[in-house]
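Table 4 source record.
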Amino acid sequence: MPRLSVWLVRASLVQMGVGFLFGSLLLHHKGVPIYSWTWNLREPHIEIMIFGWTMQFVMGIGFWILPRLSAPHRFGNVRLGWCSFWILNAGIIVTGLGEWFGQGVLSLTGRLLTFAALTVFAIVIRPRVKPLGGDSAIIPVSSVSISQGKGEPS
């Protein structure tokens, strides 16, 4: 497994733990109110679980599992992949802090960083995405034959 994939998956598991912690605090507060600030964890919890855990895990596995290019750069531009990793995590943190403190500008900045990270990652993996079955993934309708045998409804 490439080092970038390892770090993406590890970071996603750390984010999952933080997201579970925030979620458990929210759930506990719902049953037994402790602190009034606990409800401020709702939006950071959602951000961490969607982008920190799920999206980062998908990026790590995708970077590892997609077909490799010919040598010497089997995984494409890995430096851009690392940039995507750091920008994504910065975006998640900035968005979480913006949601925690109710700062819309900070949240927007974090979302833009997250979008930039996902765009950079798409640029990194784009050369490795190949259409299924050769040159075109679209099968012309005229080349599809449908035969009906005995016992099949017409």
